[in-house]
Amino acid sequence: MEYISRISSKRREALPVDLCIRQIPVSSELVLLTAEMASGSNPAGNGSTVVARGRTGDRLTLDEKRKILELYPSQVILREVMEKSNIRSRSTIAKLGKQREKYLALPANVRGKSIVSRKRKFDVLEEAAMKNHGDCIQKGFPVSFTDLKEEARLVATNLNTENFKGSQGWVSGVLRRNQLQTVVLQGEEAGSDPKVAEDWIRDKLPEILQEYKNADIFNCDETGSYCRSTPRKTLLKV
Questions:
Q1: HTH CENPB-type domain location, by residue (predicted)?
Q2: Neighbours of 115 (CB within 10 A)
Q3: Hey, what domains does the chain have and what are their CATH numbers?
Q4: Pick from 10, 117, 118, 126: CA 20 to 30 A from residue 49's CA?
Q5: Mean pLDDT across the stretch 113-132?
Q6: How many separate helices (H) and strands (E) can be counted in the chain?
């Protein structure tokens, strides 16, 4: 008579298959696999101990899930996948197979143990603010924390979005999700055209200064008065 090993918290005992409430045919492979799970032996029989995986207390990381799906089922058979990944549960791998595309799309060495996909309340406003940010950066205009918030508020007003405040916490979440950080802009060479500056000093500046007395004309480089100057910081993806 075939037996299936069963483990309780106090003892290990053999349970006759024919004593089950439902008479379910048990293949020799299932009996062997169940016995291996009960004894903790390696399916390959090399003497090493298999660590139980796929349980609530020992969840697979996202990177481990992606690597398992790279093996199964295209390269090796299921049993070899279980051995290579130290996983006892076939259902764990079967569940991963149903979400193959989602996990294989993850980048290498991704952190975490699960993917959370939920729709946020103000996704439309975030998308609009990020589109404006991308357009400004492409044109060479700096974008600040406040600029991002005001753009979202403007879109919310145009769309009659209720209960949107554009709080600091919301903007911080947008920056975190889009990997944006405040960076200091350094150097003028990339954004300056010397010829345009020389033409402006020669042609435009004298016309502007005609309305002012010499006592009211200051050199901004010496006084530090940067009226209407562009910001020195901007939000960039890093």
A1: 113-184
A2: 13
A3: 1-39 (no CATH), 51-113 (no CATH), 123-184 (1.10.10)
A4: 10
A5: 77
A6: 11, 4
Q: Look at the pTM and tell me if it is higher than 0.90.
A: no
**Rounded Cα–Cα distance for residues 62 and 68 (Å):** 10
- Other Cβ atoms less than 10 A from the Cβ of 60: the count is 20
Give the three-state DSSP class for 207.
helix
* Residue found under tokens 């290990």: 12
What are the C-alpha distances in Å from 78 to residues 68, 72, 94?
10, 7, 9
pLDDT tens, 166-222? 899 999 999 998 889 998 876 554 556 778 888 888 999 899 898 898 888 877 665
Average pLDDT over every residue of 107-114: 57
Burial 145-176 (b: 16+ CB within 10 A, else e): bebbbebbbebbeeeeeeebebeeebbeebbe
